[in-house]
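Reply to dn_fold:

You asked what the input looked like. This is it:
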Amino acid sequence: MLERNYKQIAPENLDYVKKKLIEVFHDENTLVRNAAINSMTALFVKLGFQNWPELFQFLANNLNVDNAELVKVSLECITKILEDLENDSENVNYFEEKNNSPLTELIPKLISMCNPDYPVSIREYALKSLNIFTSMMPPSFILHMNSYFQVLFISASDQQHPLIRQLSCEGFVGVLEKRKDLITANLENVLETILKLTTDANSDVKKEACLFWNEFLIVEEGEPEDRLETLRSILG
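and this is what came back:
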């Protein structure tokens, strides 16, 4: 109903729905929380930052509480929202124009939550969100690209959690597409890292690593055509 008919819903009813969704966000029942997340995402994407800015602030504030489950659920909701906003640059740019917006402040927090000291469920959603930021590339994210890039190397070396390694591969592919200069400046380390992931014991990690090689061998106009020789030297 929110996705199809939200324009026909009276403002006072929308306000009531917003209030109730935030209230049930803390529900002990997983199914209830998941339903709240899906409804929040659907409504937020329709309303936009300008009509529901307090939601993102609410989610950002939750990342600072001493409750791992609430942090994980909040990260999951943030990830879902970012996924839906990925192709909606107008919405993202609106919030980027606001000083000290929750979106701007969120990025360094997500980077810190990729630290191996955090539970893997939290690291997973933090890294997923950062990878989506790579695709959208808002101005506030560009300022943190070097820190994010180091997170990818750390995540790639996580031997306990294949999903984290897989997400690191996804991140390297995104950086190659959006910030090739970072890859070029750290080429040897990147290629050696991806090579190890290509021979990973986990099939999903290997598949994601192979996507990097496909992208790496594409030479755009004006670029040196020595990619294959570079790859041969690494493989040798």
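The chain has two domains: 1-143, 158-236.
Hope that clears it up.
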